[in-house]
Automatic annotation (TrEMBL):
Coiled coil regions, renumbered to chain: none
InterPro entries to which the protein is assigned, alphabetical: ATP_PRibTrfase_cat, ATP_PRibTrfase_HisG
Official protein name in the record: ATP phosphoribosyltransferase
Species the sequence originates in: Kangsaoukella pontilimi
Regions crossing the membrane: none
Pathway noted in the entry: Amino-acid biosynthesis; L-histidine biosynthesis; L-histidine from 5-phospho-alpha-D-ribose 1-diphosphate: step 1/9
PANTHER family: ATP PHOSPHORIBOSYLTRANSFERASE, ATP PHOSPHORIBOSYLTRANSFERASE ATP-PRTASE
GO CC terms of this entry: cytoplasm
Length: 226
């Protein structure tokens, strides 16, 4: 039985994933034309490489179209409701570290906590007649986090990229996005709330629960030293 291994098709996660497997004697490489999403696996038998956008790997694991996948913990928990019923986190991989945070404009000097944000949201709605807008692509995670924190008078605005620019562009008043070095937040005059950490994320190896846990799966995990 061939194991299908889904890995990010480009960018920061692809390179680090290739390095991680290579350090364990499993060589992943791209094949075919430069824009052809095809790859090969050397150093282990019976494993097929499937190249996907990091954001699509949760869905493919959930459907059982791939047996294992590497993506961010944030992606799995955002894309899959009751994620742990649908995939198994085999192990964090030690790269792709990023925090999902709530950030507000620097000049909101009196808004440093979630309670301050809730008060500001209530005042904003009373003044403007519509709810304070928070731009994000992490709708599930942010809605749950703010509900648990008692923040209510807001609305989420979808943003699939360049989220930090939405405040300057008057699309939103605040954001929830991934940050690693904090450079993009600072460059856009945004500041993380003191209690605004929604999730600490990194890349992890996940196994689909839609396919049966066979000896082949267990041997693959053991071969990787996990
Ligand atoms: N600085 C960072 N910015 C964004 N993502 C990061 C960063 N560092 C690590 N990551 C991880 O990489 C994942 C995003 O990877 P990527 O942007 O390739 O996914 P994607 O959004 O599906 O791709 P695309 O942006 O092309 O649609 C994040 O979910 C996170 O787990
Ligand atoms: O904290 P930092 O080190 O500044 O990194 C965080 C930034 O990196 C990612 O953007 P990316 O470059 O992946 O483009 P994107 O906006 O399309 O996701 C993310 O969306 C943040 O904007």
């Amino acid at each position: 039985m061939t194991i299908k291994l889904g890995v990010p098709s480009k960018g920061r996660l692809m390179e680090k994933t290739f390095d991680w497997f290579g350090a364990r004697g499993v060589t992943l490489s791209l094949t075919g034309a430069s824009r052809e999403y095809a790859g090969k696996v050397e150093g282990i038998e019976g494993v097929e490489l499937v190249l996907l956008a990091a954001g699509e790997i949760p869905r493919e694991l959930d459907a059982g179209r791939i047996d294992f996948g590497v993506t961010g913990i944030d992606m799995i928990r955002e894309k899959l409701a009751l994620w742990s019923d649908r995939v198994t986190e085999v192990a964090p991989l030690g790269f792709g570290h990023a925090d999902l945070v709530i950030a507000v404009p620097d000049f909101w000097v009196d808004v440093t906590t979630l309670d301050d944000l809730d008060a500001a949201a209530t005042a904003f709605r009373a003044t403007h007649g519509h709810r304070l807008r928070i731009a994000t692509k992490y709708h599930r995670l942010v809605r749950t986090f703010l509900r648990d924190a008692g923040v209510s008078d807001y609305q989420l605005v979808d943003s699939q990229g360049a989220t930090e620019g939405t405040v300057k562009n008057l699309t939103a008043e605040a954001i929830a996005d991934i940050t690693s070095t904090g450079e993009t937040l600072t460059a856009n005059h945004l500041r993380v709330l003191d209690d605004g950490l929604v999730l600490k994320s990194q890349a992890a190896l996940f196994r689909s629960r839609a396919t049966s846990d066979t000896e082949t799966h267990r041997a693959f995990i053991a071969r990787l030293g996990l």
